[in-house]
Amino acid sequence: MKCPFCGNGENKVIDSRLSRDGQVIRRRRECNDCGKRFTTYERIEEVLPMVVKSDGRREPFDHNKVVDGIRHACEKRTVPLSTIEDLVDEIEKQLQETGEKEVESSTIGEEVLLRLAEIDDVAYIRYASKFKNYADLAEFADELNALMEQRRRRAQNG
Length: 158
Description:
- By secondary structure, this protein is of the alpha+beta class.
- It folds into two domains: 7-44, no CATH class; 45-157, no CATH class.
- The chain is built from five helices and six strands; from the N terminus they run E-E-E-E-E-H-H-E-H-H-H.
- The protein has helices at residues 63-73, 81-98, 105-119, 121-131, 137-157; strands at residues 11-18, 24-31, 37-43, 50-52, 58-60, 102-104.
- The strands form two sheets. Strands 1-2-3 form a three-stranded antiparallel sheet, with no helix packed on it. A three-stranded mixed sheet has the order 5-4-6.
- Helix 1 packs across helix 4 and helix 3 packs antiparallel against helix 4 (121-131).
């Protein structure tokens, strides 16, 4: 594993921990050259479906790409990275369980939105604004109103 600070390939593992669900190993490493510490994640590589983009292109499912998109939506919010990782792990597991060879990118986006709505309203709106590509302010306002109505119903139902 290359050090992200100096590029040296020699390092030592100073701590290893399993994730909550036991699917990922988190390792703290220390570079033998510069002495800086960094974290790596190890997971079983399982066969995931190809993602069919809106323009018809196909590309492999990329865990990090989904995490980055959510992390961008959660920027300057109080959503911990571990919550984002757990969210993507759940989606990835769901995709594996379907056994499908291909999945529409819109399906993944909708799954992200469902989970973000439970975590952080602002992150949800940020992600939705990019994912749904609103044509005008009225569409965006409709989305906000639907989210607010959903929150009101949840509050009334306990």
